[in-house]
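Our preliminary data section would be incomplete without showing what the modeling component actually yields. Below, a chain of 99 amino acids is followed by its predicted structure, encoded as tokens that our downstream tools consume directly.
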Amino acid sequence: MDVELFKEALVICADKGKLQFNFLKGIINNWLQKNVTSYEELKSHELQNRFTNSVSKNNNNIQKTYKKGAGANVNNSFAGYAPDELEKILLESQKGKFD
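Predicted structure:
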């Protein structure tokens, strides 16, 4: 674990007002279980989680908005794709439509 990551754990403890060793230890153990050993890995992991949570939240809103019927399983059609693959598919399908 690098020094910057340890400092970030201390900042989190201070921000939450929990300056106990066990809280600090819990934060660090949580990161280690996720194989986060540097500050850069932590930021990357947080960004990935934000993106995943945002996509999940948007998918839930979409599912609540649309009624069952034609196209009801559209989300299932794309479930096996990574976000960057979906973006590539979308861009390819839209080529030339908005020139």
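The CA atoms of residues 59 and 68 lie 15 Å apart. The chain has a mean pLDDT of 79. Preliminary results of this kind motivate Aim 1 of the renewal.
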